[in-house]
Amino acid sequence: MNFDYAKDSKEQRPFEYYFKKYQGMDPAEISERTGIPYDEENRYFILRLMGSTYEISYPGYEIRHREDAVGSYPLETAMNAKILALRYLVEGNRAPSAGEYLTYREVPWGEFYFRNFQGRCLARLAFGYGTKITRFQEIMEHLGANKLDLGDASYEFEFMNDLFVRFILWEGDEEFPPSSQILFSDNFPIAFSAEDMAVVGDISIGLLKTLEKQL
């Protein structure tokens, strides 16, 4: 398989490392550990991400989406999404949620990485959509997210199979800037590290930005 990343790309080595491990693993073990269904006859995993369903081949890691109305497919186009899904297949573990939600600071090492997460995700969400609440709502509705009664606008969506995220926005005014909160279902820390969870925010907000241009 070929990817268009630069020779010195920071993403090249991580991808190659996890791809090599993926190729040597038992797909049945991957499916049992992660809860990601595996089609033995057609040799692909069935993974949901941000409102779309993808087929991920084994052992080739070729990715294609099933037809839907979303219109943008980060797992096919964004290297950070490809690596995140690959890391989950190689190292992730499934765990049921107790129905609780965690702030980033509440996850292991979240306090240590919070400053990065704040600028990379919370500020980006707040200043991207805190003054465009109606647009935010349109995009989230397009993704099939569930509307919540938190803040001035809020939605819950399935980021990946049985792993849920909540985006909450508060509008800015003359005295206060817009603000946001991102909450993760309590099974996230079993599946991903704090660093990976910042990438989850990147991918999710990136999809919103792409859809904003398309809708």
Task: Kindly describe this structure.
43% of the residues lie in helices and 20% in strands. The chain has 8 helices and 9 strands. The strands form 2 sheets. A 5-stranded antiparallel sheet has the order 5-9-8-7-6. The mean pLDDT is 94.
Describe what is shown at a glance:
The protein is of the alpha+beta class.
- Can you count the helices? 8
Mean pLDDT: 94
| Shape verdict | globular
Briefly note the structural class of the backbone: alpha+beta
Strand arrangement in the largest pleated sheet? 5-9-8-7-6
The end-to-end distance, rounded to whole angstroms, is 32 Å
Major sheet: 5 strands, antiparallel
Portion in beta strands: 15-25%
User: What share of the residues lie within helices?
Assistant: 40-55%
Elements, N to C (H/E) = HHEEEEHHEHHEEEEHH
The low-pLDDT segments are: none
Rg to the nearest angstrom?
Answer: 17 Å
What's the total number of strands? 9
